[in-house]
Specification:
With about 120 residues, the protein is of the alpha+beta class. It contains two helices and nine strands.
Length: about 120
C-alpha cells in the first residue's frame, strides 16, 4: 500500500471513529489518534517509560534495531521512518509502532519534530 493510500485509509477510519491498526511493513504498525488517546493506550498496555522528545531539523540515525517495542505519536513536525521498502512519513496525529528487532532508521525534515514515545521492554 502506498504511503498516500495508507494515510487516506487511516483518516477515513478516524473520521468514522473506527480505530484500526494497519500493518505497513513486517514489525511496523500505524494508526491515527490524539495525544490523550495515545496516553490512554500506553497506560492500558502498562507502559511506564514514556518520553516527550524534540528533534532538531536534520535529525538522522543510522540503520538499527531496539530490544524493545517503541510506539510513537507525532506531536509537531514530521517523523520519517526508513524501512527496507523505503521511507514512511508520519505527520501530526499519526502514530507508528516498531516491534523489537525491526531494522529501521529515523529522520525528520527541515523543521523540529516533537514526539511522544512509549517503550515496552520484554
Amino acid at each position: 500500500m502506498s504511503q498516500q493510500k495508507l494515510i487516506v485509509a487511516l483518516r477515513l477510519a478516524r473520521d468514522k471513529k473506527f480505530w484500526k491498526r494497519l500493518l505497513i511493513w513486517e514489525g511496523v504498525y500505524t494508526s491515527l489518534m490524539t495525544e490523550d488517546e495515545f496516553r490512554e493506550l500506553l497506560a492500558g498496555q502498562g507502559c511506564d517509560d514514556i518520553r516527550d522528545s524534540t528533534f532538531e531539523p536534520g535529525h538522522h540515525t543510522e540503520l538499527h534495531s531496539h530490544q524493545f517495542d517503541a510506539q510513537l505519536l507525532v506531536l509537531e513536525g514530521e517523523f520519517i521512518l526508513e524501512l527496507q521498502d523505503g521511507k514512511h512519513i508520519f505527520k501530526v496525529g499519526e502514530t507508528c509502532k516498531v516491534l523489537s528487532g525491526t531494522m529501521h532508521a529515523e529522520h525528520n525534515g527541515e523543521a523540529p519534530t516533537r514526539t511522544l514515545t512509549g517503550l515496552s521492554y520484554h
